[in-house]
Amino acid sequence: xxxxxxxxxxxxxxxxxxxxxxxxxxxxxxxxxxxxxxxxxxxxxxxxxxxxxxxxxxxxxxxxxxxxxxxxxxxxxxxxxxxxxxxxxxxxxxxxxxxxxxxxxxxxxxxxxxxxxxxxxxxxxxxxxxxxxxxxxxxxxxxxxxxxxxxxxxxxxxxxxxxxxxxxxxxxxxxxxxxxxxxxxxxxxxxxxxxxxxxxxxxxxxxxxxxxxxxxxxxxxxxxxxxxxxxxxxxxxxxxxxxxxxxxxxxxxxxxxxxxxxxxxxxxxxxxxxxxxxxxxxxxxxxxxxxxxxxxxxxxxxxxxxxxxxxxxxxxxxxxxxxxxxxxxxxxxxxxxxxxxxxxxxxxxxxxxxxxxxxxxxxxxxxxxxxxxxxxxxxxxxxxxxxxxxxxxxxxxxxxxxxxxxxxxxxxxxxxxxxxxxxxxxxxxxxxxxxxxxxxxxx
Length: 443
Ligand SMILES: *Cc1c(COP(=O)(O)O)cnc(C)c1O
Known about the structure:
Layout: H1 11-14, H2 44-54, H3 76-89, E1 93-97, H4 100-111, E2 117-121, H5 126-135, E3 142-146, H6 152-162, E4 168-174, H7 186-195, E5 204-208, E6 226-230, E7 244-248, H8 250-263, H9 269-279, H10 282-301, E8 306-310, H11 320-328, E9 335-340, H12 344-353, E10 358-359, E11 369-371, H13 383-388, E12 395-399, H14 405-417, H15 429-437
Parallel strand pairs: 2-3, 2-4, 4-5, 5-6, 10-11
Antiparallel strand pairs: 1-7, 6-7, 8-9, 9-12, 11-12
Helix pairs in contact: 3-9, 6-7, 12-14
Bound molecules: pyridoxal-5'-phosphate (PLP).
The site of pyridoxal-5'-phosphate (PLP) has 16 residues, from helix 4 and helix 5.
């Protein structure tokens, strides 16, 4: 990119070229796939200097950069991708991984020690939930969950009541929560983390931003220390790659990258190249997806077979959630869930009759997807906990893609119309009417 005085290019304008020098690759306009395991040093002195920096034996000199050594430590496809990802979150550094789970688990393993307490929001992505509740306790880490909707004071109280507040090392949140779109105040969590930090221990706030990032929510801006992504979702965006990313300041990211080097869970050059290709269209894809989701939500809210819609655009003005929504999000996103009147049978009937929308888990891709959280993505959660989180048998989750929204709505409408009208035996009509009035509340 040629330097232009006083003009700051927006991230979407930089995704085609930032950090890549064509002259280093035979003039190729696109960054090639550097499918290589190792890199040749010009001379022994250069190799020595690279290792001194890589192993932290000495600090970098002015204008000195870490040279290319070996693809587990660094590779041009990963470095350029990481530089480009930093632009969206305005982060100092980024590390990319071969999956979202490897990004998340590397963060948890690096920053938690035996005896520490991890406070995490519920519901949380199934894989993360399993790692937190099954693996972390095995290595002596205490874990404590909290439901969304709590104030800063109430979160502090939960911690104090646990008797382990002084062991708190990290607050881990996912907002909006999957699949109910409940939201959590990142700044409030960061304040709680600060409150329990001491001069020799910084309590970290880490946010899984997969659902809204990197466009519609910027956790670092609200006081979070670490942002994580399943890049499989919006960042990849084409349902053809599994990948993850972590972003934060240089001090924290140095630790994340060091553990990544020794776990060896960095992304491959091919994955890096695929994600760079995807980033070029990230904004146009996400803009279209958000617009489509808004049209779909408007349609669902007034449909007679829909009991309740869970969508950020439905949060009622004047509610505490609305204040968080306004300060934290720049869009209502492209994920929505809704309760079909009835139960699993009606939800399954809807899913089985879809003609264009595909029945699959995952999200954020170009194609629209539908799934049944209670029996699919959230099947591992104990039924009583599921109900507490609002994950009912009648709940269907949609990830809205880039298709023409008229076609998406047509498909949803024809599938809803195929549901047999067997619903009135489950709830009296008056209760449905009540629920309908509540459609735009209680997010
Ligand atoms: C998919 C997902 C993950 C896990 O990412 P993978 O790329 O599948 O490993 C983590 N968090 C959220 C919110 C997700 O949707």
